[in-house]
Amino acid sequence: MTLVDTSSWVHALRRAGNASVRKRVAALMESGEAAWCAMVRLELWNGVGSENDRRALRALEEVLPDLAIDDAVWRQAHELADRGRKTGRTAPVQDLLIAACARRHGVPLEHDDRHYDWLMSP
Q1: Number of folded domains in the chain?
Q2: Relative orientation angle of helices 51-63 and 38-46, to the nearest 10 degrees
Q3: Contact 113, 5 (CB under 8 A)
Q4: How many of the other CB atoms lie within 10 Å of CB of 17?
Q5: What angle do CA 104, 105, 106 make, to 5 degrees?
Q6: Which residue in 24, 64, 69, 89 is a FRET match for 107, CA 20 to 30 A apart?
Q7: Model's pTM, two decimal places?
Q8: How far apart, in whole angstroms, are the C-alpha atoms of residue 119 and residue 114?
């Protein structure tokens, strides 16, 4: 299973999205390995602009596993924020939570955001 971040879903759901990202997400979907979490869903729903987008998200909700955001994920997100501050790095809070979710569940994170490189490093 792989947690797919919003940055990759945006490419995957747009015809003009980055071809390599679209290909990676398509492969995860075809193999049944793609997953998301509540924060990714919220970010995607926040960007919905058309009825076609709504239909696409509803279809994803029917098939994608949802990785839980529990207390352990929140603790991990706090630790990532603290680590970032100590090293002079910042990331959007929603991305701290998404990275923490992937780390907590022990799954890779498919993304197209550079700050995830340090968020996902040991």
Answers
A1: 1
A2: 170
A3: yes
A4: 16
A5: 90
A6: 89
A7: 0.96
A8: 9
CATH code for the domain of 43:
3.40.50.1010
Question: Taking Cα atoms as reference points, which of 5, 4, 7, 28 lies closest to residue 18?
Answer: 7
Sequential DSSP letters for 48-117: --SHHHHHHHHHHHHH--EE---HHHHHHHHHHHHHHHHHT----HHHHHHHHHHHHHT--EE-S-THHH
Domain encompassing residue 106: 2-119
Sheet holding 34-37, edge to edge: 66-67, 34-37, 2-4, 109-110
Residues 96 and 102: their CA atoms lie apart, in Å, by 10
